[in-house]
Amino acid sequence: MTDPAPARLVVLISGSGSNLQALLEAAKDPAYGAEVVAVGADRDGIAGLEIAAAAGVPTFVDSVKAYETRDDWDAALTAHVAAHRPDLVISAGFLKLAGKQFLDAFGDRYINTHNALLPSFPGIHGPRDALAYGVKLAGATLFFVDAGVDTGPIIAQVSVPVLDDDTEETLTERIKVAERAQLVEFVGRLVRDGWTIENRKVRIP
Ligand code: GRF
């Protein structure tokens, strides 16, 4: 029997793209079962877009400012992602909340990686907030996106220690190393094995 076609991933980014890079590396192995078919960003001039271009992956940029209303932006982002027929859409450091049209189209297959152990420290300053609170464990959460801010069903979590002399930068970096490995592992498992969600519980058979 021939192998099924690799699952189609669209990755959304806003920054350095280290998670994207890890997915591109993993996808070089046919056994991984997925390929990155497009990368979308909400801003130009970011390293992640260069990583995509260097890998020969098509890119698009939808900046909120380029549209008259947030709904128009949401419609454009939805159309650009849909054009690549994704099996999974991955927010990897994408700093925008998708709107209703996007969630209507992809809410059953849109995942996000967040650099905190949810439900603690949602929002864009996860490591900073964790450090300020004084927690001893920090980490990353992979989850299905819903209409809230970092509130959707959790796929996986990984923890790292918070050290006494940590700064926001050192903790952020430690989290990112664990976060990348988790993202690669679980994207692969999701596309290869599928999943169910019942009462918020995500199960991968
Ligand atoms: C990740 O740690 C993500 O959780 C946070 O931003 C980082 C993105 O890093 N929101 P990169 O662009 O993949 O390097």
Quick rundown:
The chain is an alpha/beta fold and about 200 residues long. The chain has helices at about 20-25, 45-55, 70-80, 100-105, 125-135, 170-195, and strands at about 5-15, 35-40, 60, 90, 110-115, 135-145, 155-160, 195-200, 200-205. It has two domains: about 1-105, Formyl transferase, N-terminal domain (Rossmann fold, 3-Layer(aba) Sandwich); about 115-205, Formyl transferase, N-terminal domain (Rossmann fold, 3-Layer(aba) Sandwich), CATH 3.40.50.
Fold blueprint:
Blueprint: E1 7-13, H1 18-26, E2 34-41, H2 47-54, E3 59-61, H3 70-82, E4 88-91, H4 100-106, E5 110-114, H5 126-133, E6 137-144, E7 154-161, H6 168-193, E8 196-198, E9 201-203
Parallel strand pairs: 1-2, 1-4, 2-3, 4-5
Antiparallel strand pairs: 5-6, 6-7, 8-9
Characterization of the model:
The active site is at residue 114. Keywords: Purine biosynthesis, Transferase. One of its GO terms (cellular component) is cytosol. This is Phosphoribosylglycinamide formyltransferase. Pfam families: Formyl_trans_N (PF00551). With 205 residues, this protein is an alpha/beta fold. The chain folds into 2 domains: 1-106, Rossmann fold, CATH 3.40.50; 113-205, Rossmann fold (3-Layer(aba) Sandwich). It is built from 6 helices and 9 strands. It has helices at residues 18-26, 47-54, 70-82, 100-106, 126-133, 168-193, and strands at residues 7-13, 34-41, 59-61, 88-91, 110-114, 137-144, 154-161, 196-198, 201-203. The chain has a 7-stranded mixed β-sheet with strand order 3-2-1-4-5-6-7, sandwiched between helices. It has a two-stranded antiparallel ribbon with strand order 8-9. A hairpin with a 2-residue loop joins β8 and β9. α1 (18-26) packs parallel to α6 and α3 (70-82) runs parallel beside α4. The mean pLDDT is 97. 5-O-phosphono-beta-D-ribofuranosylamine is lined by residues 13, 15-20, 48, 92-93, 113-115, 176, 179.
